[in-house]
What we know:
single chain
Amino acid sequence: MSKTVLVTGASGGIGGACARLFAAEGYKVAVHYNSDKASADKLADEIRALGGEAVCVCADLSDEAQVADMLGIVERELGEVDVLVNNAGVSQQKLFTDTTREDYDLVFGVNILGVINCCRAVLPAMIRRKSGSIVNVSSMWGVSGASCEVLYSASKAAVIGLTKALAKEVGPSSVRVNCIAPGVIATKMNSHLSDEDMAVLCDETPLCRTGEPQEVAQAVLFLASDKSAFITGQTLSVDGGFIT
């Protein structure tokens, strides 16, 4: 029987790459989006055209009730979630002294509260089955911190802390929780950066280039699969050596 994966933020670059890769591996895929319905529908159609199973689900992940409704649709259409990929996230570049409560609510609402809500939603069934894998997507800035991205860095650091603690708590139930910390990846989230900024970031990366969404997706799949059956509570950097 094929497994079911829920990928949050699947309408974006890394999320879309994850959804495609899991589908290619035979998973039934729940494609989550919040606002970009067109991209989510296109992705789901692409998966179905290749013979896979996919359903689109919409939710504001900071809203616990919407997450519960989303999970109900996924379970009804595809079955209980075997793998949760907490990929949805928002970034922000601003001096810390210029940030507002609205900025805090947005960044933390999606980047950490969304992760918490999704984990709380899928864990009861995973614990009951004594099987399941959660992969959270943090950032290299959650490891090292970034100037002018204080709220983003703090929220992504919180994801790493949640991963470590939750892995210890649910490990006895054979549920694994791991984390990915991507570096500079060629996605829409980084499209605001100038060519000069991207060149500097590439120069600071030992592999001298940006990463591709598919490279992050391969790491996510590894941590979600039985190939990493004795790995939990870990943060895997996929950053070309940027953070050492």
